[in-house]
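Write out the 3D structure for:
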Amino acid sequence: MTEQQAQPRTRRKPRSLAQELVTVLTERIRSGQLKRGDKLPTESQIMVEEGVSRTVVREAISRLQAAGQVETRHGIGTFVLDAPSTGGFRIDPATIVTLREVLSVLELRIALEIESAGLAAQRRSEEELVGMRAALDELNEGAAHASDAVSADFQFHLRIAQASGNHYFADIIHHLGTSIIPRTRLNSARLAHDDQAHYMGRLMHEHEAIYEAIARGDSEGAKMAMRLHLSNSRERLRQAHAEAEAQRA
């Protein structure tokens, strides 16, 4: 390898370095350059080849894991799984990157999570309620420090789905992963024309209302609280999408 080849490539500023790297690695898998069972290059190799940071590499690998394309074996490396099927119904979390796609996933969540919240209020166990409270406390702690706390947000919604008693709700939420949380893809506070601390405070109150209704076994109240929470997010994204479309017109 020459010195010129070993230098990181100069890249244009993409919308998402991690997503661009996901696209590169996915194409290698689909084209057969990386086959089932093959070990991915090391983080350091990918950093040099693609001219990105270690953080970007790890985020891209995480997205590929969520999409079921690779698995990481601790202390050994990351390996390619079966190539994604091109037929049948499939949602690839790694492709949920545009405002339109995030909005579409949010509409799917509204259909699913309102019902799962209602069922959770009827069926949740004390242990499941404790799990929800723990995730919510972690989320609130992050909000107090102006943190996105995406992982805790996801865990809160996942635990509600699990408490529904219908594993299909949880399976879909788990498959989508943290991509169900809009701020993993977009600056939701900016879209809401709000500062981060105030925005996270509003989310905290919405989540608390959902939890309280589930805790007291109020199925309809849980549905209403979840509907309000997700509909508020949808409206923010819908307005942002309309503004973006108007700017392009």
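Residues 44 and 54 are 7 Å apart (CA to CA).
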